[in-house]
Amino acid sequence: MCITCGCGAPESRTNLHHHSHTHGHDHDHAPDHGHAHAHGHSHGITGVAGSGHSGQHDDHLDHHDNQHHHTHETVQDTGGRLLQLERDVLYENKLLAERNRGYCDAKGILALNLVSSPGSGKTQLLERTLTDLKGELNFAVIEGDQHTSNDADRIRATGTPAVQINTGKGCHLDAHMVLHALQELKPAENSVLFIENVGNLVCPAMFDLGEEVRVVIMSVTEGDDKPVKYPDMFHSSAVCVINKTDLLPYVPFDLEKAKANARKVNPKLIFFELSCTSGEGLDSWYSWLCSKMQQKKDN
Hints:
ten-stranded mixed beta sheet; alpha/beta; 9 helices; two-stranded antiparallel ribbon
């Protein structure tokens, strides 16, 4: 079980090249608890076409202590029991996220973390974007899902290099998983890296992956109150895509109410209303993406 969010995350698997990597950390609880809790995950890596891995890792990403150390303190409560407190369970993730971010900045890579509930249309949006902007921008994709390589297979069909991370029982990607994916994928300089997170509007909000922009996607088939029901995700995002607008005549979804709810938790959100089926609104999304990439190059 993940000590941070409570999800069952004993193992993650990355669909890459043949080698295995394990790491973990044990937490001994107070004597009154009568048990010890162990948390860790392993990366079993298999083959993927087009990753071009030569067996050499980038120096920016390769230096990593496989043992995850956390800082603890022990205090005594009024009943005399010893309680062990973990000061910051996200500390290790923050360090690795900064490493990922530094790597992308050094390479001129624009990294976007796509987050949403299941079924919002993240993968379809990626397929349309990768296909329509082929030749204008270079892309690479990291796919996160609990099981199967279905999404990565769809992305590779567009001609885009992709890595599939399977989290098993885990409900989110973390910076360590992304670090290993970057080591294998090696995105081209001055490219756009999409990280499609596991479908979940709760736990992924807590984990910085090293992205430059977090993009939350919701569809009109969901409730227009999603932003106020899951405020952390919308608060931590810079962009909100409202997808499947071609279905608006057939569903009880109030577009303006959804945007107003989102602005309640994050007044700075940038909105894109679009349909991957009809193509409506995609031009605005593409224009923003190309503009962000140009800003990256200019800096």
